[in-house]
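agent> Task received from the user: take the single chain below, predict its 3D structure, and emit structure tokens. No templates, no multimer pairing.
agent> Plan: (1) validate residues, (2) run structure prediction, (3) serialize to tokens, (4) report one or two observations.
agent> Step 1 OK, no nonstandard residues flagged.
tool_call: predict_structure(input=
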Amino acid sequence: MKQIIPVFAVFLLLGCKVGSDSKLELPQNQEIDLAKFEPADGHCLLFIGQELEAIGGLDAPYNDGYLDHFPKPDGFTMYTGISPGAESFGYTMKGLDGIWTTDDWGDSDNNMSAQLEDPDFDDLMLAIGFWMTGGHDRKIANGEHGEMIDRFGHWLKSLAPRPVFLRIGYEFHGPWNNYDRESYIKAYKRIKDRYDEMGIDNVAYVWQSHGFDEPHDLLESWYPGDEYVDWCGYSFFARWQDEQMIDFARKKGKPVFIAEATPTIGSLTVKEDGKTIPLVLSNDHHAERAWNEWFVPFFSAIENNQDVVKAVSYINCNWKSHRMWFDNPHFQEVDARMQTSPLITERWKKKISTKIFASGNP
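)
tool_result: status=success, residues=362
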């Protein structure tokens, strides 16, 4: 467990940057160990996801997202993975989809290169959810897909010095991913070991759970090891009360990235069928309820755990308009675009203007 020291004023006076496997020097020879790209205690990085329309900041039709209505965050979240040949809502995966071309596998358009080439994204960190579903965790574990892993690695290295948070096999225990535990761990390690061999030093490795039904012994059984994990992460949806990752990460001495978060409120049967209530932020009644029952707990999780919760990513999308979620009971009636609600917009801007979201790092 890290030693907690009140260093906010010192942090600002020293003009310290986000850590990169470094230590924050303090008076009287005090030090705080920082994980890769971890800000000091009392600071939290803000990311926005998770596709072109949601994030915005580009030419039409991608000019009505978060970047077009709110102050610039610290980073943005996108997705890619290795599952060539898999069918996803009328789209056939090629592998490393959504990096160099505009691809829609059911969750709206994705193209990281288009974003990275735009000046509005010049000073933003990048968080990537990397899947290996459809049995490809087993293939990677067994030594397959080496060329694709290397191609992805060369691209990541080309982004330096831009920090990248790589979430290998995110939501690893979620039954929707169908990962094999031993293969998942082996594949995770193989990717990181290879990228270490390639000299990639602008990537922090995030081990992310789905955030519920995960007692400590289960988390421990899926854990790749301290030397393979820079950050622990979890998803913050309707069952946020059930998370165990913050305490697990604190015991491991790792910072926490709330890597996926969007306002959802569980129905009476949410634990049985995952069903949430309709929540459309453009509806004032829905927005008020969302603020009280989801946003307030979300910010409390950050504010009450400033020693470990050091990054969050809000998913600013209209879930119910994307084919992937039409039949998904958790997201099928959710529109989480904050800019559609004056109430949410005002309160969000006030919250993110507080010192906890001032990372001190341009």
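agent> Step 4: summary for the user.
Residues 34 and 279 are 38 Å apart (CA to CA).
agent> Done.
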